[in-house]
């Protein structure tokens, strides 16, 4: 009798395992069988846990199909939504019902994943996978389905990674080894050329900061390298190859944000970099009151072409060269008789050049 029970249970477990990895049907997700729009609370959390467990058992190609099924079969409750809209048309106070019924089931599941150990990192990694799937997928319908899950992940991550949930950390040579490794390994703008170069970038006259999150411990999210100088550098090589360590840090007047890197692919498109620079600027100013100028050497794609169009009288924002610009150029050049057209021609000449000299840069400040 005991042997028969054991054999029966063994077949049940083996069948569960096979179904879990191969999926129950062409349009369903095994771990979500029994899930519906009435599921909530602890039961929804259990489904979220099962979803994550199943996802990590799948091969790469099956993970993509997993998301397509999730978007296709676990969206909003259409019938309930139509009913809520009807109620709303009669009484606007029913907007909450419209919002709730319009929320896709997959959104509720992904939101619940955050309550699992490592759940926030899981959603972040999932979005990174989805972005990769979208980049290589040619089927428009699948791309549309993947995009819906990606947008849900992005919305949730944007909420979870708001400024109040982020932790600003400075990197020094005394920082934990795993943090130093991740910072050095992920520097994408100006790759680090060994230990000596790395020590210089986080040593005197330099600052390196990153954002962390309590739900992703010891995982830098985005980082910025800052050079403390006495003027704005005209090129990044001046910063990267600088060897002068004798200058007093307290005499610096300029902070140059010369490299910013997003480390977590799943957080791409979420504006952490802008928030990081603002927080770092505030911290540096509080520590070094002489710092009055904050500058970046990072290019703005298309800015020069746009500015030249504006200078050529094709601006949708009115006159670019106004009285303030004319006075500034006259004062900088020492030529008080420059006309508006002459000022405009001078600016066009400067911005059309392949390389702007330091003297021209001083003129543009």
Automatic annotation (TrEMBL):
Residues 165-332 form the Malonyl-CoA decarboxylase C-terminal domain. One of its GO terms (biological process) is fatty acid biosynthetic process. Residues 74-161 form the Malonyl-CoA decarboxylase N-terminal domain. It holds the Pfam family MCD. One of its GO terms (cellular component) is peroxisomal matrix. It comes from the Eukaryota. One of its GO terms (molecular function) is malonyl-CoA decarboxylase activity. InterPro entries: Malonyl_CoA_deC, Malonyl_CoA_deC_C, Malonyl_CoA_deC_C_sf, MCD_N, MCD_N_sf. This is Malonyl-CoA decarboxylase C-terminal domain-containing protein. The lineage of its organism: Eukaryota, Metazoa, Ecdysozoa, Nematoda, Chromadorea.
């Amino acid at each position: 009798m005991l042997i028969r029970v054991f054999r029966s249970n063994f077949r049940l477990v083996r069948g569960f395992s096979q179904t879990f990895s191969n999926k129950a049907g062409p349009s369903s997700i095994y771990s979500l069988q029994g899930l519906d729009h009435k599921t909530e609370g602890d039961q929804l959390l259990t489904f979220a846990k099962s979803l994550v467990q199943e996802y990590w058992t799948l091969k790469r190609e099956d993970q993509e199909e997993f998301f397509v099924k999730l978007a296709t079969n676990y969206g909003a409750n259409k019938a309930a939504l139509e009913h809520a809209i009807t109620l709303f048309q009669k009484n606007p106070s029913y907007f909450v019902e419209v919002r709730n019924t319009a929320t896709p089931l997959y959104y509720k599941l992904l939101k619940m994943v955050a309550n699992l150990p490592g759940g926030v990192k899981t959603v972040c990694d999932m979005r990174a996978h989805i972005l990769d799937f979208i980049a290589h997928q040619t089927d428009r319908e699948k791309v549309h389905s993947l995009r819906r899950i990606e947008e849900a992940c992005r919305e949730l991550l944007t909420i979870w990674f708001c400024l109040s949930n982020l932790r600003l950390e400075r990197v020094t040579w005394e920082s934990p080894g795993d943090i130093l490794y991740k910072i050095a390994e992920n520097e994408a703008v100006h790759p680090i050329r060994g230990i000596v170069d790395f020590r210089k970038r986080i040593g005197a006259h330099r600052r390196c900061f990153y954002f962390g999150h309590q739900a992703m411990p010891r995982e830098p999210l985005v980082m910025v390298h800052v050079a403390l100088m006495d003027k704005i550098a005209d090129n990044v090589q001046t910063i990267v190859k600088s060897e002068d360590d004798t200058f007093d840090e307290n005499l610096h007047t300029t902070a140059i944000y010369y490299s910013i890197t997003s480390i977590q692919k799943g957080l791409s498109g979420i504006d952490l970099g802008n928030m990081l620079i603002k927080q770092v600027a505030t911290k540096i100013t509080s520590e070094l009151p002489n710092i009055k100028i904050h500058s970046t050497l990072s290019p703005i794609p298309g800015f020069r072409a746009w500015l030249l169009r504006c200078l050529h009288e094709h601006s949708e924002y009115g006159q670019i060269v106004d009285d303030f610009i004319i006075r500034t150029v006259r004062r900088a050049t020492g030529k008080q008789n420059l006309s508006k057209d002459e000022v405009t021609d001078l600016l066009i000449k400067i911005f059309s050049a392949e390389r702007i000299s330091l003297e021209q840069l001083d003129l543009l400040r």
